[in-house]
Amino acid sequence: MQIRDGTPADVDALRRIARASFDRLYAFFAVRGVRGAWPFLIAEQDGVEAAFLVGRWFDGRPPIGYVYFLAVEAAFRRHGLAGTLVAESLDRFVKRGATRVFAAVPEENDASLGLFRSLGFAKAPPHALRRWYGWRAPAIGFRMMLAPHEALMVRTFTDLSPGDPQGP
Fold first, then answer.
1. Three-state secondary-structure class, residue 80
2. Which tens digit of pLDDT belongs to each residue from 1-20?
3. pLDDT for 106-163, tens place per residue?
4. Any domain includes 162
5. What DSSP string describes 4-55?
């Protein structure tokens, strides 16, 4: 397996994987999400584009990482590609200064929920965005394009005190 930065030349492979992995609306937004994505990662297995991760970076104090879309072609599932992509994105987000990384996962997608939990994510408490980011929360939520059927998962990379407004 090889993880590399995605390029515009990868959009056809991303479209193929997205269409096989998501319904039409999600597939559309996954492909569209490549514009402005950071990081945009591709996992290759045996020379074939087998999985992708489209991330988002939200500037501000503190900056935020967001796993926007993650998909693995069916023939390559359960080979560790998704976990490797998320781990690589986490490393990049933290190196760039993120204190938290979020992912929105459909509540009924047990495999994805399990993957994110195994990588240290937990379900964000109610109103977490408002409590942690104050006036920025509506814009952050809008940019995350959260759907009502999705669980907002979060991984925190700092050890904040309970009295800190950014704390648990």
1. coil
2. 899 999 999 999 999 999 99
3. 999 999 999 999 999 999 988 899 988 889 899 998 888 888 889 999 999 876 545 5
4. no
5. EE--GGGHHHHHHHHHHHS-HHHHHHHHHTTTT-SSEEEEEETTEEEEEEEE
Query: Is 168 contained in some domain?
Result: no
Number of domains comprising the chain: 1
Alpha-carbon distance of 164 to 29, in angstroms, equals 35
Whether the CB-CB separation of 52 and 42 falls below 8 Å is answered with yes
Residue 38: inside a domain: yes
Q: What are the pLDDT digits (tens) for 63-74?
A: 999 999 999 999
Give me the CATH number covering residue 127. 3.40.630.30
- What is the token pair recorded at 49? 């584009």
| Residue 104 structure tokens | 């929105």
Range of the domain at 135: 2-156
- Flag whether 131 is in a domain: yes
| pTM, to two decimals | 0.90
Whether 121 contacts 153, CB under 8 Å: yes
